[in-house]
Every structure is written in structure tokens, then in C-alpha cells.
Amino acid sequence: MNCRSEVLEVTVEARQVEEAMLALLHTILLHRSTGKFHYKKEGTYSIGTVGTLDFDCDFIDFTFVRVSSEELDRVIRKAVSEFKDALGNSGSDGMGQISLEFYQKKKSRWPFSDECIPWEVWSIKVNVVNLANEQERQICREKVGEKLGEKVINVVEVINRHEYLPKMPTQSEVDNVFDTSLKDVQPYLYKITFQITDSLGTSVSTTMRRLIKDTLAL
Amino acid sequence: MAHFDTEYQRLEASYSDSPPGEENLLMHVPEGAKSQWHHIENLDLFFQRVYNLHQKNGFTCMLLGEIFELVQLLFVVGFTVFLANCVDYDILFANKFVNHTDSSKVTLPDAFLPVDVCSARIRDNSFVIFVLIISGVFWLHRLVKFIYNVCCYWEIRSFYINALKMTMSELPYATWQEVQARIVEIQKEHQICIHKKELTELDIYHRILRFKNYMVAMVNKSLLPVRFRPPVLGECVFYTRGLKYNFELIFFWGPGSLFENEWSLKQEYKRGGNRLELADRLASRILWIGIANLLLCPVILVWQILYAFFSYTEVIKREPGSLGARCWSLYGRCYLRHFNELDHELMSRLSKGYKAASKYMNCFLSPLLTVVAKNVAFFAGSLLAVLIALTIYDEDVLAVEHVLSSITLLGVCITVCRSFIPDKHMVFCPEQLLRVILAHIHYMPDHWQGNAHRYETRDQFSQLFQYKAVFILEELISPVVTPIILIFCLRRKSLEIIDFFRNFTVEVVGVGDTCSFAQMDIRQHGHPAWMSEGKTEASIYQQAEDGKTELSLMHFAITNPQWHPPQETTHFISQLKERVHREATGASDTHPLSLSESEPRSLIANLLGGPSTLNSVHFGRDSSLTNHAAAGLSDGASALRSLSPISSSLHLKGSLSAAHRAGHTSAMSKAMASSGTDARTVSSGSSAWEGQLTSLVLSEYASTEMSIHALYMHELHKQQSRGEHSRHTWHRQESDESSDSVPDEVRSEPNPHSRNFPRSHTFPTTVPSPSAIPTSASATSSTMLGQGGASSQSSTQQRYSGPATDSFGAGGKVVRSARVPMGGWAEDGQAAPRRHEPLPEESSEDEMPPHVHKVNAVCVCVMGYVDVACLHCK
After folding, report:
1. Which among B55, B246, B571, B844 is least buried, having the fewest CB atoms inside 10 angstroms?
2. Which phi-psi region, left, alpha or beta, contains residue A144 (left: φ > 0; alpha: ψ -120 to 50)?
3. Where is it mainly found (chain A) (predicted)?
């Protein structure tokens, strides 16, 4: 609970799913990434630069800015295409949700594993529609572009608010806050998960975990 | 371009050691995670643990306690099995002779069976094996729990030490309010909750009590099936720990429960669309859980016994009152609990009411039983006397078989019988006792007032305050009854439950989904008959019963003076407080008899205003403090708040000792010192805890203030609802003969015993002269309420007899003079009840009816406090 959650909803055509998701995820990550930290002695550091590039969508009238990091792009594309496939295979009414969760790690003592504590969760709800003819597709193409533009503004507004962010870490703790595996950019630790159809409720494993935790609680 | 380049490089060259780049220009200093306490994942659990550790007096105490409990469990099981299987009782009872050659004495080891025989007996007995297995699992469960807890609480311990800067040794002497204030303080620095910059007290309470608030609300709205009408027993309440556990399992955390995690209700339950489908699902889940309960019944039974054994010791440790024959039932705790009231707050206030409550219950000894008991005691007594006399004559009588055991049995029998025989010199006044109880428990169905002497009231009260034996019996039959209740009663309510959770869940930023009642918003859940007339917009469905919203709000505001409620709420609180104050002053202003006026006013003034006035009352009683006291009174409550801890402790210590000396002298000053008495009992119980005294005494004042407000609100409510149809939570199904039927304040009760003494002598007709009252009153007070006082107290009584009569005379006079218009008003009020609703803020004080009305309320308050005092002084 101790995390912010933002929900974005989009309605798109099946072939636009990938690009729409990429647009939103990349936008968020653009604002949640920094340049690489270079630690110096005396406990200071300097921040490297972050390159950006414009990305034009094929199926939507839309261009967005993303971090020019091929590695990051690869990771996100992989997640999004998995999501798209799952959405296509589900055969249900085409509802899905992809969430981007920013977390920080907290080292804990021996019997417990490291905790991953989310501090911000972006949930993007996707509603896939089928369109009958080309004309509708054209209209949809423009409308989705506009909508995505609004969402991007929305994201920027949220990020501009002066709210909790993990404190800048010292060198030893940098892995607890930032994802340092990429060589040209350093986003906050994030996790992308997705869920098809409305809500499956809590999974069995989480219930079991809760059950055990609750019986153990004083 | 090339030109620029070269120039640039030349400039660069002046910085000798660093490579070109922007790194030099922007240097950052990492803040680092200086503390590990920012952004805690599960704040609910975290705060609960912080609270638990505080309640358990620190880490070491908790650790030791738990270890000893584990050992105890092993010992109890082992010893029981040993006694049952490994002792040859024939040898012990000398039915069988031991063939010792050397001596004829039987030694204890002779009675033990050899190890192999013993283990064979255990192995053959499948029941013992079963019990052993269950207790083994139980013990392992506790062991794992213990280890887990040690790890978790170690972290909380370091939170206390590093973040809150409190050592474990000072923890037992810190009140929860202090701990809480520090948590609120460090939020600014560490940001343990990321949603807000600042935490409020209410946020912390909400998180700790999230589910408890729901349960309280459900009991308040009579949603849970806990009242039954079995054919023979009449109406009864069945609410056990097993049932409670199952309710919580179903609603809050079990597999497929309504809550997704600790802090959020599942999305689908928030939407009204498919409520029927959800209700079906809930019903089938309840069915399955019920069946599982049924199947596991024997296991649960054994578990229950073990658990009861251990939690029972726990209860005794926590609750001193529980050593008596009665205890507050689980249902009572739910019914009496305020929204947002922590365990220790509830416990302390129930414990305070314990004495009065058990006295009240003792008023109702059945005369039939008394007759029987008297005679049984007579016969048993004569037998016992003969046996004892014979024993004294020749102690060989004891050696005769069964003489010792029959003496013991007869003794027990007489003791039991005596508990059914009322003390001849004891006179009870149930109406007053009930008011004293009300001052502590704060809730009571409307129709109890004025009907305190009736058996029905007593029966209903016994549902809140039951025999401990009944409590244990209920716990033991609970494994069998619980599945039945789940399957046949709760399942039917599934739709209502779904609706309840949908309608009464609000999402609060930074807290998550909480019960909307717990917001204590007068506008949403106020009850028009409880002073929120005009402010509330709630429908009947949304109103909390019994003035729970209003009383909870007052309670929370009083216990957490730092809390800043929302605008309207602040208004409500200040209005109410102001009214209580104004009436305190108003009471004396209407009767400008300079002699008598100082007493009742200073009574309330010092109950509200705390130490400074308390002092002035004791030392400057006879001086003309009329103006001075009035000035002090107006900022009475604010004085209570603004007291800095140090100065207040000085003040309070002084005033406490003053109360000590003067406290027993008179009924009135007893009333004043009532809070002091409490503090004294606490502090005398633990004289080492001096440091705690400050906050303890402060919280004492808070509880007294709350008692006054509770009494006042009940009084207003009664006046307001008189004449109009009232709703009762207690018997909502049956609109019974309620208090409306009898104008109880002026009614002379049929039973002369239940006439309380202030009332009897406050009627002008019964009073020959003011000077005659005090002696008779103090005489009656000591005889009527019995237990005249400890011997040490009686000596002070002697010494201070002069002022005692004085003050009582004055007090009695005021009460009397206030009573006269009240009686007149009572008739008036019956004729036109709606005219005397709680006045809007701007109503002028010059109008007659409000005045009188106020006086009335104050009188009742005062009387309530006289009662409290009487009870305390015993």
C-alpha cells in the first residue's frame, strides 16, 4: 500500500497495442531514468548524460521521445510483445493490464530474503477493439494518437508533482535503487508485469503466503 | 569552429588533472539511505508491531514472556500425561501394599510406574497419542511463530532505538500517546509513509485498527449473527473467539476473502453491479468454511483448550479485573468499543467499570436461591462445626477416612452458598450504579436508563458482562456451534455483508480502504438524536447506532489532543465542549446564592480543568473564589491541553496529595478527586513508575473528561428522544416498553432500596433543613453503599468531619435548588418535547427553557459524579 499508483486507460486496435504500450512505457521510463552515476571519492558523484530520440509509430499518428538506449528498448519490447501475444491468445474480450512498477530493494537480515518495496506503480489498462473497415481504422489511428498525447501530458504532470522519490544512494547502495545493469542509462529499479482479462483475484501463492504470515503474526 | 576549439582546449588545459567533460561542473552529494526507516512497505503491520511491542513493555519482556510460555506448555502437557499414565494410584492410596523389606514407609518414587510400562500404556492409549500429536503441532506452531516474531520484533526494536530514540528500558514508562507523537514527528524526516508529508494520529489508528473498526461497525449495525433465540434459553448472545476468528477469516484475510491485502478491498466488491453474484460466491465460501469447521471440530476442540489455557493466563496478566467471577464478554467488548480505540484504552476503561458492574450484577441475587443457600449453608455449617470441634478435641479424627476431605468439601460448599446470600447491611442502588458504569463504558441502550432495577436490564447487561464460567463454557462448545452459525445464520446475511462493505468502505489517501464509520464524520454517519441534528446528512442506514460516531469522535479528540480534525468536526467538538463548560458556569449563574454556587461549578471546573482548579478548590474552598474560578473555568479544557508535562506533573503531584488528604473527607471532594483516585490506584500499584505519572495522570484527566462528556451526551440524548419514538440497537426487533413510559427522573421507584440518596434528599419535601442534610446524607452514604472505607480512611474522615459536612451541605443545596426547576421542566418537556432540542449555537442564554434544560443536564452530570465518587471511595 505504501506506494503511489497511477492508472492509465487506453482503447486501441489490436495492431496498435504494441506501439501504444511502448509509447507509454518509454515515456514513463524517460522521466524515471538518470544518466549513469560516477562516484568519486569524498562521497560525491556526477551524473552522465542521457540521450533521447524521437520514435515514430507506424500504426498510430504519434511520435514520442524515448531514451536512446538500445538495451532498455530491447527489454521493454520483449515485455510488450509477450503481453501482446498473451492478449492475442487469450481470446477473451481483449482486456489486459500491463503494469510498470518502480521499487527499491531493502536488505534484510538472514532469515528473510531481500524485500522489494514498490514506491510507484503505473497500471496501463488496455481495451482492444475490432474495427470493421478502413475508414474507421483511419479515424482510430488519429484518435489514438491524440489520446496518447494526452496521456503523455498526464504522465508528465504526475511526475512533476513534488512527491516521494528514493533518496540518492551512496555507492554501496546504488543497486538498491537504480538498475545499473545497462551501460548507457540508469533507470530506477523497475519491473514490468501484465495481466490478461479483468481480475483473477489474488493468486494461490500470495494467499498461502498471507495465510502463513497471519498465523504467525502475534 | 577550429578557432573555438583551440581556445577551448587551452582553457581546459589550465585544469590539469581532470579530463574534459561536464562531470566537474555538476557534483552531487548522495543523501544515501541514512535511515532504513523511510518508505516502509507494510505500514499496517509495522504500526501494529510498534504498538504490540509497546504494549508488551519492550523487547526483553516480550522475549522472556514468550519463552516461558513455550516452556509452560511443554510442562503442562508433559505433567498431565505423566499424571494420567505413569502413577500407580493404588500405591498412593494405600490400597496396595509395597513389599519393602527395610521400611514400612511408602515413598513417592514407589508410586511411579517403571518407564517401559509407562510408555507402553501411553502407546496403547490412542486418545493420549491424539492429544500428544495435536499439542506437538501446537507447540511447533508456537515455536515457529516465536522465532519469526523475534526476527520481526528485533527490527521494531531497532526502530524504537534508532528512529524514535527510545530505549527499551524506558518503553514501559512511556504512554502510547508519546510513542505516537514521536512517530508523527519522524515521518517528517524519514517519510515512512510516502503518500503524505505528515502523518496524523488518525492515520496510525486507522492502520492499526482497520479490521477492528469494521467489526465494531458490523456489531453496531447488528450485521453479525451473534444474537440468537434458542427455544429454552431465551435471548442470548453467542460470540466466541472461534467465531470471531472465522468471521475475520471470511472477511479479511482468508483465502478468497473480501480484502485483497491488508489495505484494500477487492475492486469487484466496490462496484454495485454484480452484488448478487458476489453474495452467492460469499455464501458458498461461508458454506465451505463452515463444513471445514465441522470436520476439524475435534482438533479445534483440543486446540481450543490449549489455547484457552494460555490466552487465559495472558488475560489475567493484562486485565486485573479478570480475577473476579465475571468478565466483559467478547461481544461486550465489541459493543462498547469506540471506533478507533486501541486495546489498552478499551481495557482500561472497562476495568474501571468492572467494580461497579459487578456490584450492579450482585444487586440481583435471586431470593429463592438465597433461601435455599441459607439453609444449605446452615446444615453444612453445623456438620462442619461438629467435625472441627471433634478435631480440635482429638486430632485422630482427621485420620478417619474421608474426614479431611469432607471438611474441605463442606467448607467449599459454605463458601459457595455465602456468595448467594446478600450482605444484610448492603443496600444497592442500581440506577446509580448503572450511571457509574455508563461513565466508564460510555454506551448503553436507551431503555436501560430508568429501568436499571428490572431483571430484563440485568439480563441484557449480563450479555456484556458475563460469568467467567459461562465464558469458558461458551469457548468450549464453540467448535460445535460455530459451523452451525456459519452455515445457517451468516450465510443468509451474505448479501447484506456485501452491501455493507461496499457502502461503508472509503479509500483514504495514505491509509487505504477503511471503514467509513471510522472516519467519525458527523455529516456522514451522525445520528440526529445524538447532538448532530442538523449536521448529519445520513440516512437511517448510514447512521451509527447508540451515538457511536459522536461518542467515538469525542473520545478520539480527547485522547489525542494533538489531532486536528476537519473543519466541521472541529466545530462540533468545540461546540460540545463549550456547551459542557457553559452549563457548568450556567448552573451556578442561575442560582446566585454565593455560598452554594462555588461547589458544583468547581466540581465540573476541576473535572474539566484539571490541577490548578483542583488545588484552588481544596485550599480556597471557603474563600471568595467566585470570580476567580469563573475565569479559570472558561479555559478549563484548554488548560488541560496546554499543560506542559513538567509543570503539570508538579501541579498534579501537589493536587494529588491534596486529594489524598482531603479526598476522603466529603462526598463532594471525593467526587472531585475521583480522577485522582484512579491515578492513585495506578501509581500505588507501581510506585516505581514515577516517570510515567505525568502522562498517566494526564490520560486520567482525559478519561474523566470523556466520562463527563459521555454522561452529558447520554443525558441530552435522553431528553431529546423522550416523547419521540426511539430506536434501540438492543432490541431493534421489538419496540419494547422503553424509558419513555416512565419519567424516570422524578419517578419514585417502587423499591425503596433503589432510591438513591442524592435524589431522596434533594427533594425539598424530604429535607428538613440544609444543615441536617449533610449528616444524614453522609451517614446514609456510608451505610448504604457499604464498605465504609478502609480504617486508614476512616481516621481521616474523623479529622476532616467539619469540612466534609460543610461541603456536602453546600453541594446538596445546589442540587436541590437545581432540581426544582428540573422537575417543572420535565412535565413541560413531556408536553412539548421538540422544543428543547439541543440549542443551536446562537440561541441566547436568556431564554428560560434552555437554561433550565442546561441546569438539568449539569445536575445529572454532577450526580453522576457524586456516584462515581461514592463508588471510588469505597
Report:
1. B844
2. alpha
3. other
Euclidean distance between CA atoms B399 and B392, whole angstroms: 13
Q: How far is CA B124 from CA A2, B128, B129, B521, B757, in A?
A: 56, 9, 8, 64, 68
Using alpha carbons only, give the angle B301, B304, B307 rounded to the nearest 5 degrees: 155
Q: In a 3-state reduction of DSSP, which class is residue B164?
A: coil
Mutate to test the interface with B, among A1, A102, A121 (most CBs of B within 10 A): A1
Chain B, 139 to 168: residues with Cβ < 8 Å from chain A are 141, 144-145, 147-149, 151, 154-155
- Contact yes or no for B874/B786 (Cβ under 8 A): yes
A162 within 8 A of B191, measured Cβ to Cβ: no
CB contact under 8 A, A44 and B28: yes
* CA atoms in the 13 A half-sphere facing the CB of B242: 32
Q: How far is CA B169 from the centre of its chain?
A: 27
Helix, strand and coil content of chain B, in percent to the nearest 5, comes to: 70, 5, 25
Closest CA to B153 of B38, B63, B230: B63
Question: In 10 A of CB A54, how many CB atoms?
Answer: 9
- ipTM of the complex in this document: 0.80
**C-beta atoms of A164 and B39 within 8 A:** yes
The overall average pLDDT reported for chain B is 70
Predicted local distance difference test score (pLDDT) of residue B366: 78
Query: Is residue B812 predicted with pLDDT exceeding 70?
Result: no
Give the three cell numbers for residue B135: 499439542
Rg of chain A (C-alpha set): 19
Cell numbers at B738, concatenated:
422503553
Closest CA to A94 of A204, A41, A15, A5: A15
For residue range B219-276, list pLDDT tens digits in order.
Answer: 999 998 888 888 887 788 899 888 998 999 889 887 778 888 778 888 888 888 888 9
3-class secondary-structure state, position B693: helix
Q: How far apart are CA A201 and CA B538, in angstroms?
A: 33
Distances (CA, A) of B733 to B264, B458, B606, B736: 34, 19, 43, 9
DSSP state of B162: I
Pairing of strands A115-129, A4-13: parallel
CA-CA-CA-CA torsion sign (B342, B477, B305, B317)? positive
CA distance A202 to chain B (A): 7
Contact call for residues B614 and B606 (beta carbons, < 8 A): yes
Q: Report how far apart the first and last C-alpha atoms of chain A are (Å, whole number).
A: 21
Backbone angles phi, psi at B540, to 5 degrees: -60, -35
Partner-chain contact A4 B194, CB within 8 Å: yes
Counting every residue written for chain A, the total comes to 218
